[in-house]
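Thanks for the sequence, V.! I ran UTP--glucose-1-phosphate uridylyltransferase right away. Repeating your input here for the record:
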Amino acid sequence: MSLTVADLTRGAMTEFQEKLRQQHEESMHRELEALLSTANKVEAEISRKDFDGFKKIFHRFLQVKGPSVDWPKINRPPEESIQPYEKIRAKGLPDNITACLNKLAVVKLNGGLGTSMGCKGPKSLISVRNENTFLDLTVQQIEHLNKTFSADVPLVLMNSFNTDEETKKILQKYKHHRVNIHTFNQSRYPRINKESLLPIASNMGMSGENAEAWYPPGHGDIYASFYNSGLLDKLIAEGKEYIFVSNIDNLGATVDLFILQHLMSQPADRRCEFIMEVTDKTRADVKGGTLIQYEDHLRLLEIAQVPKAHVDEFKSVTKFKIFNTNNLWISLPAIKRLHEKNAMDLEIIVNPKTLDGGLNVIQLETAVGAAIKSFDNALGVNVPRSRFLPVKTSSDLLLVMSNLYSLDAGSLTMSKKREFPTTPHVKLGSSFTKVQEFLARFENIPDMLELDHLTVSGDVTFGKNVSLKGTVIIIANHGDRIDIPAGAMLENKIVSGNLRILDH
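Predicted structure:
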């Protein structure tokens, strides 16, 4: 077989690329060592563990080019791998609820700041209902569970260097609540210059010129940082078998006793090590990750992994009917086993950012649900939409503060007075983005029990006891202001420009 010029060129290219990769890796290792030498002993010890994780992800980042999935290999998951919640619920509750709960710990992802909602500090400290913050509601839920069933379910918070200090200060106030609270920290990884692929940090400090040099590497980091913190082993020693993981801003993510019973009742040789709660996609969820069957495994497919040509197909509600709520039930011994074998091959999400000074950097991140393919007997459970109630924007906040939901022992449930179970579609304009501004625009939260759709744009305020029904669209043009008067009842109305009220 004769070699063509093209073959030789290809060979030379591969060799060249390999050399380049090695150079990048060697330079990175040198830079990381130099950074570590600027830290004190205790800090250097923690950061070395973080950097070990970063080196692994950086190595894989240099190896992998292009989308991480081969589109034709994607299949719909087999029927039995995604169970309807009703089927799991039909099995009933465990005989001994307390014994089951005592094998569970609840983990909340608490690394995020409230910046997107115009708040300083951890997002979990934003008030969402009757002066209660996300964290208050979480503690109330678990305390209620522990009291009702005389159980001992601990709460574990995964903080990041952005939220750790302020969260710990607040935790003092729960000292006398019936819930043990533990915290551990996500890793701190260096942002890298998009061109040189080297860290932009000049030392291990986190202020001044280094304020933007670090990032928490996505919630996929939970496995390594949980293990490194020693908390994983501590919980296993206390007899815990599973963790229930969710985002702290998902107010629907409460401990579900039916799912817990399903996990606990599996035969020892077919122990389900991972459950991902999924729910049916609506038009609002087109970007959410979905479950696919890929090379004989259930796998999470995120929009960032989809080749450009297939993004519209990924977003379609017909082909991919469900999405990941990020409510996950995971076996603790399995996390320990897979981490020690270095067997969790999480897809890398490359997140490009432009810093304030205009510098282009990249962050290498991973997602917690991506590990589903590494666990044995993993399962999707298609849960009701009520288990997915995230508060990402002030529009979401308006919903959860309203009479659409009632609050009981820290749990929000759709009001019995609402005749149909769907959530209204709410879109508030940019004047409502920041929580402070949002609150100033409502004298109190309108009655929304019969609302289907609300769009508000421009400088709009709401008086006391306003009632919104059907489809309501309120648009104040630039320079105009609309004050909805106290006691107004708007049903299927468009209110525009100069406060004319027209039939819709």
